[in-house]
């Protein structure tokens, strides 16, 4: 101990001499990151707000039109329908993901032989991209060359091959199934970290007091992993509100534009119709919704975890 | 008697648990396995429903050959994807290691503000700022270039990876640095020789996340890469699957999906530890 103190005293003195200059060097280290964030995030963010106040075609001059884009949004029933559909999808898919991920998390949390294999298998679909997963399922869902309709037909469950993507209900639930398959493993790992942070002696004490598994789950597990649940919930909600890939690749927004999500509608307005100003105004609405969700998340996460 | 019965129920329970586990695992693995196996069917067989999933009329790589005949072939978009992913990994590691070190070890004006601003960009969906990003890239001459796409991907990785690296550097005891400084190490040698070996698990984690997100990203590449020669694999495959190159060849789609999935699966299986570490760090903090 004394030797360290002896060494660090002169070091500290020298640090003091060059301290000012050396500390400023820190700015140099963070400069590339700051530059990237400014150029590719802060500036575009400010531009979105600015563009939303303009009529801004891809070619030609743009003109300032004040809040007209926002007034137009109020009358844009297709945007509200897209937003309504996004909300509906978010609620359904989040419930479905949790209904699958929670039992899986409870299952893999207990150490037993093969747990590693189970955990890895459940998680595998989470590392492939949404685009790959969507392409894969667009094949499985195909009526002629796919798996589900022909298999159901061969097994005699249906009288003819049913095109799952032709009407809203089967198409919607097919997407839900695909997303649950792809995301449940991810949510499972998050929930598992919460389960593992619960001290095992608490469960044991409750067991000795005669609490059954259900009572233990409600009285100990759920309250103690409130923060983890909030995190998993928000990740799922934020991801679903921004859903695009699967609806674009598998359904192209169909059948009859019934599965256009908010991001899909913004994409159409900005990059298909090239109404960049209007797209920016729509983006602002989406941005406000997401920031509001993030702030709720921060509040939920701030609350201390523990028995209170 | 009672003991024997309880042992029997325990074994019964275990059998039930493991059958549940195995069935669930098969459900999760099935679509992946189905695709990888079906891709090896001859083209003729690929048009039929994949029952059974494995090739019954002989093993063939015909689907990969067919895939290579669409648009610019398979190799160009694969090359684009590899370039974009590798560059995203390299740049995001360099930028986040520097920034993580800076935020962890120096006191400078605006430090906390800059850190909070970088981290809070995670709250804002990049989907809502794509149009201006497109205009910014045009302005600085990176419009429709893979380099431009890399810049966007690196920026999107920064909040997570800088947070990870700052924590990694924070965990290194200051005594190590002071000892090295006594030996005359300056800032750069300190970072490269002394610190890097101590924070490498964090680097592997952020590199893995950067690779997976760049390799799999869809919307930004779809919007920003308008020239077919700049398409990454997901964009090229979606064009193929939408019938842009004529009738949809599902065999080629299976081959393409396999090419897109396999690198992710291999990397994950090799580096699983680091992936879970990253998720935990994100979940706990």
UniProtKB/TrEMBL annotation, chain A:
The keyword Transport applies. Pfam families: BPD_transp_1. GO terms for biological process: transmembrane transport. The chain crosses the membrane at residues 24-50, 88-108, 120-140, 171-192, 228-251, 271-296. It is found in: Cell membrane. Its main location: membrane. It is a multi-pass membrane protein. Keywords: Cell membrane, Membrane, Transmembrane, Transmembrane helix, Transport. It comes from the Bacteria. Residues 83-297 form the ABC transmembrane type-1 domain. GO terms for cellular component: plasma membrane. SUPFAM superfamilies: MetI-like (SSF161098). The keyword Hydrolase does not apply. Belongs to the binding-protein-dependent transport system permease family. This is Sugar ABC transporter permease.
From TrEMBL, chain B:
It comes from Mesorhizobium wenxiniae. The chain crosses the membrane at residues 21-40, 82-101, 113-134, 146-169, 190-215, 250-271. PANTHER family: ABC TRANSPORTER PERMEASE PROTEIN MG189-RELATED-RELATED (PTHR43744), SN-GLYCEROL-3-PHOSPHATE TRANSPORT SYSTEM PERMEASE PROTEIN UGPE (PTHR43744:SF8). Keywords: Cell inner membrane, Cell membrane, Membrane, Transmembrane, Transmembrane helix, Transport. Pfam families: BPD_transp_1 (PF00528). GO terms for cellular component: plasma membrane. InterPro entries: MetI-like (IPR000515), MetI-like_sf (IPR035906). This is sn-glycerol-3-phosphate transport system permease protein UgpE. Part of the ABC transporter complex UgpBAEC involved in sn-glycerol-3-phosphate (G3P) import. Probably responsible for the translocation of the substrate across the membrane. Belongs to the binding-protein-dependent transport system permease family. It is a multi-pass membrane protein. It comes from the Bacteria. The complex is composed of two ATP-binding proteins (UgpC), two transmembrane proteins (UgpA and UgpE) and a solute-binding protein (UgpB). Residues 78-271 form the ABC transmembrane type-1 domain. One of its GO terms (biological process) is transmembrane transport. It is found in: Cell inner membrane; Cell membrane.
């Amino acid at each position: 101990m004394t030797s360290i103190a002896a060494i660090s005293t002169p070091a500290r003195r020298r640090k003091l001499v060059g301290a000012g200059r050396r500390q400023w060097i820190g700015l140099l280290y963070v400069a590339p990151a700051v530059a990237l964030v400014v150029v590719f995030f802060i500036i575009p963010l400010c531009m979105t707000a600015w563009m939303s106040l303009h009529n801004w075609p891809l070619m030609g001059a743009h003109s300032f039109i004040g809040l007209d884009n926002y007034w137009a949004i109020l009358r844009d029933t297709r945007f509200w329908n897209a937003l309504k559909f996004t909300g509906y999808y978010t609620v359904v898919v989040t419930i479905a993901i949790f209904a699958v991920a929670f039992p899986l998390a409870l299952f893999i949390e207990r150490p037993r032989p093969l747990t590693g294999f189970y955990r890895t298998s459940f998680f595998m679909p989470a590392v492939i991209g949404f685009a790959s997963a969507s392409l894969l399922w667009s094949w499985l869902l195909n009526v002629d060359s796919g798996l589900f309709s022909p298999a159901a037909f061969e097994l005699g469950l249906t009288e003819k091959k049913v095109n799952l993507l032709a009407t809203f209900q089967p198409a919607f639930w097919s997407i839900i199934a695909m997303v649950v398959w792809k995301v449940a493993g991810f949510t499972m790992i998050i929930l598992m970290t919460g389960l593992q942070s619960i001290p095992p002696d608490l469960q044991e004490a409750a067991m000795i007091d005669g609490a059954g598994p259900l009572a233990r789950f409600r009285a100990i597990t759920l309250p103690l992993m409130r923060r983890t649940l909030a995190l998993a919930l928000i990740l799922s909600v934020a991801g679903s509100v921004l859903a695009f890939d699967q609806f674009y690749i598998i359904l192209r927004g169909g059948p009859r534009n019934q599965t256009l999500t908010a991001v899909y509608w913004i994409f159409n307005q900005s990059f298909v119709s090239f109404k960049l100003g209007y797209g920016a105004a729509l983006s602002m609405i989406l941005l406000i919704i997401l920031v509001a969700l993030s702030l709720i998340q921060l509040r939920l996460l701030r609350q201390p975890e523990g028995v209170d | 008697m009672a003991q024997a019965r309880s042992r029997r129920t325990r074994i019964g329970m275990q059998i039930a648990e493991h059958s549940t586990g195995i069935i669930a695992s098969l459900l999760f693995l099935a679509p992946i396995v189905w695709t990888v196996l079906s891709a090896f069917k001859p083209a003729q067989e690929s048009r039929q429903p994949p029952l059974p999933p494995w090739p019954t009329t002989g093993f063939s790589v015909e689907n990969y050959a067919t895939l290579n005949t669409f648009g610019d072939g398979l190799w160009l978009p694969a090359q684009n994807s590899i370039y974009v992913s590798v560059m995203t990994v390299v740049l995001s590691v360099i930028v986040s290691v520097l920034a993580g070190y800076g935020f962890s070890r120096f006191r400078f004006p605006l430090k906390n503000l800059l850190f909070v601003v970088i981290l809070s960009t995670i709250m804002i969906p990049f989907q809502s700022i794509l149009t201006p990003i497109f205009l910014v890239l045009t302005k600085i001459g990176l419009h429709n270039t893979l380099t431009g796409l890399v810049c966007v991907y690196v920026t999107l990785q920064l909040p997570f990876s800088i947070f990870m690296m700052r924590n990694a550097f924070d965990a290194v005891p200051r005594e190590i640095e002071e000892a090295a400084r006594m030996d005359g190490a300056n800032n750069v040698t300190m970072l490269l020789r002394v610190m890097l070996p101590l924070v490498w698990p964090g680097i592997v984690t952020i590199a893995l996340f950067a690779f997976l997100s760049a390799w799999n990203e869809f919307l930004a590449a779809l919007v920003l890469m308008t020239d077919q020669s700049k398409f990454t694999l997901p964009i090229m495959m979606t064009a193929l699957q939408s019938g842009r190159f004529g009738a949809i060849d599902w065999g080629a789609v299976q081959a393409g999906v396999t090419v897109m999935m396999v690198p992710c699966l291999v990397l994950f299986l090799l580096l699983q530890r680091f992936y879970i570490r990253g998720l935990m760090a994100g979940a706990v903090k």
